[in-house]
Design goal:
The protein is α+β, with helices and mostly antiparallel strands. About 40% of the residues lie in helices and about 20% in strands. The strands form two sheets. A five-stranded mixed barrel has the order 1-2-3-5-4.
Length: about 250
Amino acid sequence: EAIIIKRIKLGEADRILTLYTPDLGKIKAVAKGTRRPKSKLGGHVELLTHSQLMLARGRNLDIITQAQTIDNFLPLKDDLERISRGLYISELVDSFTAEHIENRRLFDLLLNTLHQLSQAKNGELVLRYFELRLLNYIGYRPQLQRCANCSSPLQPATNFFSSSQGGILCRECAYQEPIARPLSLNALKVLRLWQDCDYASASRVKTNPGLSSELEQVMREYIKYLLERQLKSTAWLDKLKQGIPQPM
């Protein structure tokens, strides 16, 4: 069982697929002939497809010998914004995980998020919830309850988020770190809720454009700091928001 999160061309007709699985974590395998129009495997190993696969042990990479689709998330793939968000979460998983490290909670989160992206009207909320939960599961949970530097209780006012400290700073500690960004009380409340609630509870939160943008920026800066680079898919998402047509 696997979700295809990345694929690259190999030779004239093959592909190397990056798979995220519930029991083996992230693995790579070769799908032979899938770039040919009549390939029997092709439709079952498309990006963002949940499939049942049979692999044969290879010298360097395993070979996919059989495949059967469990869910191809067609509503997601028929909409440019939805599939762009799907590619973003798959890039997040690929960037933050090493191969052969099992993380069933992350697999379940990825699978559930693909379902939510196929249905939800508020895709931005789905992304923020996914980012926070992913950080929980891989050991980068931000400190949102107390000051990340001095551990003092946070005041119910504008505080500051520090990517390098991994969480919120009180006003006193923020003076020592000029690059810490202000975080409104409403944004802090939403992040705290989403960090520990289920998706049904998270989806009941109403955010205006200003708050949504604030949440996106703080999460993007933290992820960029952790990865030491910007994800490629964020540029695509930004251009979609600006209404810039993209070449297909």
